[in-house]
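In practice, a research group might receive sequence data for several interacting partners and want a quick structural hypothesis before committing to experiments. The following worked case mirrors that situation: the sequences arrive first, and a predicted assembly follows.
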Amino acid sequence: MAAVFRFFNQRPYKGGVVVDGPERPLSEPITRLATPQTVLIPLAQHIGAPAKPVVQPGDPVELGTVIGEPQGFISTYIHSSVTGVVKDLVTLGRPGGRDIPAVLIEATEQAEIVREQPLVKYSPQITASEIRTKVLHAGIVGMGGAGFPTHVKLTPPDDQPIDSVLVNACECEPYLSADSRLLLEQAPELLAGLRLAMQAVGASQGYIGLEADRVETIQVLQELLGDDATIGVVVLPSKYPQGSEKHLIKSILNRTVPLGALPSSVGALVQNVATLIAVYYGVIYDQPLTHRVVTVNGGAVRKPGNFLVPVGTAIAEVLAAAEWEPDAAARVILGGPMMGKTAPSLAEPVTKTTSGILALTPDELARGERSVCIRCGRCLQSCPMGLYPGYIAEASLNEDLAAAEKAGALACLECGCCAFSCPGRRPLVQEIREAKLKIQQNQRERKGN
Amino acid sequence: MEGTLLQGPGPHIGGPELTNKIMWSVVMALVPTSLVAIYLFGIQALALITTTIAAAVASEYLWVKYVRHQEPKADGSVIITGLLLALTLPPGLPIWMAVLGAVVAVILGKQIYGGLGNNPFNPALVGRTFLLISFPVAMTTWQAPLDGTTTATPLSLLAAGEKLPNWLDLFGGNVGGSLGETSAIALLLGAGYLLWKGYIDWRIPCGVLGSAGLLGLALGTPLTVTWFSGGLILGACFMATDYVTSPVTPSGRWIFAVGIGLITVIIREFGGYPEGVSFAILLMNAAVPLLERATWPKPLGVAK
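A structural hypothesis for the assembly, expressed as tokens:
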């Protein structure tokens, strides 16, 4: 029997909130979205330098053709998600002068992902550097939302050996079920991807952390693992933000990542489910990351579900596939309802990091009158980073950046627990984010001088 | 909605709690105590409760509208102030004094600091203390429940070395005292509701009652007398737990609560007043900024 740990009462982290959401679409299989007529593929879907376009208008491309090459180490490849013709190189407007280049491609045929016979059967012979190279060439990035290039994460610093690879299978944001559904359908692929990641960083132990209500998934994993002691399944409390890197490490390994340091400083690496499955296909089949599973949900969606979507598809098409009601929606959100961003338009493309598209009705949005701070302390008690968010937000409003920095503004994850629990509906995250941006800008200027 | 997608910062969903919902729940939690007060002390109690609430609401409304030039909000907090003040008054207090107390509580206790969220001291206790210092005789003239004859409170009996009522009368409220302090059972009913809803922090009533009880025992006073013979339960559950005037940090709340319990018993045993809950809370209110600084949370990942 595989080791299943129940960590309910073992040093859980402080803070966090219990978020009730609607039922997650978990029982239905993932639906394959039809190839759209055009895709708009951004060349910056990751943290780091945007990829450099290597195609021109008029060029024919196939599913998987490289259309962008990495510039520098923290960057990655971008591939076409359809077979067709490049129509244009465009710029996607973003606020604050952070516009990003993108490639518009017209699909000429319905191309399906075809998996040939595995080129390299999974075997311990494959070297760590081969794995990293294949991950880079497959254009794999952290698919949970951050988009950090995975080959970089699989290259730990020499002085910080990694002993444990953790799979974030918590999917702690409400409404979403893309990772949970993927795990249910592709557990063997996930385990293979996890073993590849462990091999790439030389870790001896793997853990899969998931929330207690995934009984079916836990059984599937237990059966697959048999008596393999190198991978443990860890059942965690259903609490947000359980899937946060630092909190997953705290819950599973009882190690605390020092402020400002990376998980590698405590010998840990965290990957999410979709990313590791992409690693498996990238390494074993040389298949680039061109599609991802997206949850479409919300009160204004008639048929919530999970869809396999070509990167670059307009969110309008994915929403239409889930039969959304545009008139009922007040906000369209990319990602989860806690940390997701509002979509600037319905033409916005799905990227490698789009875990969900939510169309929320006015009733689902945070309601109630805004009031002054009554010092109830809920923000402080809910902060998983141990901050006093109300104080930092107040300092931010008063432009007292020194006080905000001293109170730990830069440690803020922007998880939203404080604003969620605030009975005065104060926009705490937004105010803290403003302080963070100004503090970081000042730090850069100080360095520059 | 094409082209006009609403933008906004996350989190996009909100938790179940809202300020005015919490405030109105506190008012609801004080209803049993108010009803018992009206049963025990009759029309006088009803008159005191309604006039202090009316005076408090009117003071806040006029101040916010004509001094601060803002639109007054019905957040319920001023009703708590008026009601709590009434519950700390002796049943026979002249109405005009109660009205004066309510005006002082709202204006000097709350509004001059900038209104809700900014006042350092519990407004109801500012009003009560003002009345106690200004009208010491009227504020310490007590009536027996139900028949209205002049009587003493259990604590003044204790201070004079006389025999106390039995504990059932103490617990149920059939003793002399302020409107809202006599019936422990009605207070605990309301406090239990607030604890169950998570609207008050259990640390504060536990800290106050625990520390006062222990120090009382050490000085030879039975728990029933320490807890049920004065305003300790009203103070511990409804005044010390005021968000605005108590620390935000959990460990700060412990120290705050224990301080209130100890100071209360010290005043009762050694001070010039038979009851010390109000002064104890006001003194610890003053210590809140210090307590918060001393118990400021450490961010996760910072060396201890």
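Before designing any experiment, note the following. Chain B is about 60% helix and 0% strand. Strands of chain B lie at 142-143, 150-151.
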